[in-house]
Amino acid sequence: MPGDLFNFNLSIEPILDVIVGKCLDQGSSEVIQEQTLKVIQAHHAEYKSRKMAAAEESKRLTTESLRRFEAKETLLRERRARHIREHILAQKVGSRNMSLNFVAGLQNLVLGRLEHSSFFHDPLKYQVRQTFFPWLMAEVDKELGRIQGSRDCVDTMVKDTIKLVGDEQQKQKEYLQSIIDLEEAKHQAIRDEQARIIGIQEMRAKEDADFLEEVALHEAKMEEERLAEEAAEREDEEDGGDDESSQRDVSDVESDA
């Protein structure tokens, strides 16, 4: 009423402003906390999916490396088998040449021993010496020429084969060395990629820790502000109580007067 010392509408407005402001601050704090929790959960889900993708990629690279290693081992086994076959062929060629040389020498030795043991009868010695021996020597020369030609041909073939085998072995060594270098480069790339993924994971873990620390600091700051506001509200309430008591004292004095 007009003229009263205490006006309820005017006195209640600061209290209502404080209560409404506190409710709004509390509501906004809860909304911010919910949004922060959603962001953290989304970040964790993304980190988990990336970690699973990195694990799958590492598994795929490991499987590919094992497959290439098995292919390399198969190629090495085939090369060793081929080298063994070529070595056996060279031994067979050498054995054939040795047997031909031995047979040629044995033929001359047998004929000489027969002649020395008088195997040929005397009436035929002249015919043998004049007809058979020249013919035999001519045939021997022809056979020796053929043997020498075969030997030269075989020697040429052996030399060409040895040269081809050496060139093939050199090519195989270069090819295997290139495969080994490629595999080492791939292993190094895999190790570099794993190190990069680990660095990214560590960096993301650090970012998560920094983000959580910022969230904690923000929440602590909000809690301090809330406590400061509550302390201010208590001080305002105490000031309001003193004003009300002073107004009551004034009213009592006036009523006594």
Sheet with the most strands, sense and barrel status: none
Number of domains: 1
The number of strands is 0
Please tell me what the overall shape is. Answer: rod-shaped
End-to-end C-alpha gap: 21 Å
Structural class: mainly alpha
Radius of gyration: 55 Å
Low-confidence stretches: none
Number of helices: 2
- What percent of residues adopt helix (DSSP H or I)? over 70%
- The helix/strand series, from N terminus to C terminus, equals HH
Percent in strands: under 5%
Average pLDDT: 79
Could you characterize the architecture of this molecule?
This protein has one domain (20-215). Helix 1 (8-116) packs antiparallel against helix 2 (125-256). Helix content is 94%, strand content 0%. The chain is an all-alpha fold. The protein has helices at 8-116, 125-256.
